[in-house]
Design goal:
With 94 residues, the chain is α+β, with helices and mostly antiparallel strands. The protein has 1 helix and 4 strands.
Length: 94
């Protein structure tokens, strides 16, 4: 009888801990969109990304009124060239 009560307590405690973990995960996922809000007046906007391989890619970035082509690799970020007019990007985004 005593073993049955202890086993029931352990199972109940485990169920409570799992329920709290699932609830915490739900709350974090649900409210993380509030934390990650991106405004329209960001100083830096990523307009496009092109992956060359899993670790290296090109990025077209808009900062204030400049549009820049940058290379990203495990060694760091390198400015490749400023762009005059981006191709394929609507003019209202630039």
């Amino acid at each position: 009888m005593d073993l049955g009560i202890q086993l029931l307590r352990v199972a109940g405690s485990l169920a409570l801990v799992l329920a709290l973990l699932i609830l915490g995960l739900y709350v974090v996922r649900h409210f993380s969109s509030w934390i990650k809000k991106t405004g329209d007046n960001e100083w830096i906007q990523v307009l496009s990304r092109h992956y060359l391989d899993p670790k290296n890619y090109l990025v077209v970035v808009k900062s204030q009124e400049q549009v820049l082509l940058m290379g990203v690799s495990p060694q760091g970020i390198q400015l490749l060239t400023p762009l005059d007019k981006p191709t394929g990007v609507p003019s209202e985004e630039v």
